[in-house]
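#dry-run=false #mode=assembly
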Amino acid sequence: GQNIDQPTEMTATEGAIVQINCTYQTSGFNGLFWYQQHAGEAPTFLSYNVLDGLEEKGRFSSFLSRSKGYSYLLLKELQMKDSASYLCAVRDGDYKLSFGAGTTVTVRA
Amino acid sequence: TAGITQAPTSQILAAGRSMTLRCTQDMRHNAMYWYRQDLGLGLRLIHYSNTAGTTGKGEVPDGYSVSRANTDDFPLTLASAVPSQTSVYFCASSDARDVDEQFFGPGTRLTVL
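#status=ok
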């Protein structure tokens, strides 16, 4: 099976930066995904990394190190609407996604 | 574009009863998935289908069955519900090309009493 770890909760102030770490151990690796999930809603796709390095998408960036089994999602210029759960998911050798339990980010004014 | 729809939105079910959760997508995606989401455990894969006519077991398949008669529909059936199947169920689909990110339906909240 897969082992994906991420912090349970994080709190930050509006306008600040927050970094959500994700470590994983999988049998085979075919990419790492980050999803955003607002309370009571469906997860929505944020970012994808398959090669080492940083992928930037506006205020959101995601980093991957395959040798370390490590990724992070960086949220810059935090807004109140960024309060949500952020899910780290790894696609394994069978092309199936395994999800971490999610990190709940609370943005305070 | 509707994307993925699920029905019902929520349901309360007596233990021992059967129930089918419906999922329909209009994106012509080949692959479809069923997950359950429980507090503290994250999303866990129940069953999947890589293409119409084929299905496979995920991480937690016991007590559930699926069928994939066509591209658009992927129903999930609980033959005899138990309280441990109380959860939020999400259906998802992907086109199995490029990034192949999964698109999720709005979910069905199921309570088994």
